[in-house]
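Worked example (supplementary).
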Amino acid sequence: MKVTDIVEKLGLNVFSGHEGLGREVTGGYASDLLSDVMGHAEAGTVWITIQTHRNVTAIASLRDISAVIITSGEKPGDDTIAQSNEEGIPVLGTELRTFELAGRLYSLLG
Amino acid sequence: MKPFRADLHIHTLLSPCGSLEMSPREIIARAKSRGLDMIAVADHNSTYHCELTVTLGRETGLTVLRAAEVTSAEEVHSLVILPDEASTLSFQAWIDSHCTNMPHNPDIFGDQVVIDRDENIIREIDHFLPAALNASIDEVESAAHSHGGLFIPAHIDRPAMGILGQLGFIPGDLFIDAVEVVGRIADLLFPVIRNSDAHVPEHIGRRYTEYMLESASFAELAKALRGEAGRFIIPQP
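After joint prediction of all chains, the assembly is encoded as:
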């Protein structure tokens, strides 16, 4: 499954990083503690978080994460968007809470 | 120039997690008995006990600095140490304008009371003080500096509520005056200080930092953090 399929099926907003919409997705990871993501998230996963700090994109790049989904209607700042565009890692958004979004993504990835 | 021993992170009873024994008077008495030359009171997102502690400190010969432990939107705790009364009032107004007004339950979290010099309760705070402000860590940093204060990410080596735990690494474009550590960290690019983060009287001075200064004051501390004019942080063994 590609990032673009997830965007379509879950009705997500695409804030930035459009270049990366064709990336393959192999799993998901939900965490708001960036040190935890830095240590444990696997390459190819979609990362679900409410954090919007620009370190999110840096860590997504470091772990080769396919896309970031920001939940609860939170919006990334300009610097996060700029870095996401630079790295080609999509930053997506939803009004759903992490729990609901993670459930839907889990079903989708089967 | 001589060494001054300072513990710049002490909670009063205003913090919900602060023991009710942590009155400004008790803090000063303990600090003096522990051989501290300078302290800072740093309650969660609040400065309401700063003036009283400064006054009592002045009367008894202990330098007290005004500070707050600010929680950013990312749930990173940072010490903001302020130069004087006016900047502290103005910084408190900035905090209030970013407050998210989380309800407080004293039975779970503990009381949040402001007292006077006779230790009478004069005010109770009804929102949960340590809750994250709706201000990013970058906004906290710029507010600290625009008020003439020092910005010091707190307990960065704790697994959570410190900048490394919450954000994974220290963003390169933050202007950081020093970092506070609990354990021992080598090879940091920033000045490193240690403070007690005391919530009970017995913890005051359990960690401290020595500074080479002309006198115990905010201005001298700021110079020491920058390594200016012969002032410096005395390296720990």
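Two points are worth noting when inspecting this output. Chain A is about 40% helix and 20% strand. Helices of chain A lie at 3-10, 34-40, 55-62, 78-87, 98-109.
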